[in-house]
Design goal:
Helix content: 25-40%
Distance between the termini: 31 Å
Strand order of the largest sheet: 1-2-3
Largest sheet: 3 strands, antiparallel
Number of strands: 5
Structural class: alpha+beta
Length: 158
């Protein structure tokens, strides 16, 4: 670690969710992460961002890998196939509206085999569990130090 920690250049953090429910600056990455993990956060699995603001006015968006994890939607091929077949039945019963159901997972116009493959390969995004906060915060701080080191010098004469 440097004699002067690069993280001292961070003025504040901000957390953004789908409805921007966290307007106040936060003192640490952990506090920002905990906002996304809170009951107050609105759809943090869909839209979220954490930004570190530096004292010199620059902002560094934190990679979403520090607050999101992606997990497979289905544990097995059989589970994905069952889901595709159930959806196919709903589409057949529901007309055109039914065709819009979960097209982000698999396109119902594709062959059954391709739909199963797409479903099996699809992932769901979740905010990381709080049990991972210590490890995640350490990794985020290492990343942020490197990101600050990689920034070009500020031209103070502008």
């Amino acid at each position: 670690m440097h004699d002067q920690d690069r993280l001292n250049q961070v003025f504040a953090y901000r957390t953004f969710d789908f409805r921007n429910r966290f307007p106040d600056p936060l003192p640490s990455f952990r506090a920002a992460l905990e906002c996304l993990q809170s009951e107050v956060a609105y759809l943090p699995d869909v839209d979220a961002e954490i930004v570190a603001y530096l004292k010199d006015g620059r902002a560094i968006p934190m990679p979403d890998a520090f607050f999101w994890q992606r997990k497979p939607r289905f544990a097995s091929r059989a589970e994905a196939q069952e889901w595709v077949l159930e959806r196919q039945t709903k589409i057949e019963q529901g007309g055109e509206i039914g065709q819009l159901v979960n097209t982000n997972i698999a396109d119902p116009r594709d062959t059954l085999e391709k739909q199963i493959e797409d479903a099996l390969n699809s992932t769901a995004t979740q905010v990381i569990p709080s049990a991972l906060n210590d490890e995640t915060c350490r990794a985020a701080e290492r990343w942020l130090r490197a990101a600050i080191d990689a920034l070009p010098p500020v031209d103070l004469c502008r």
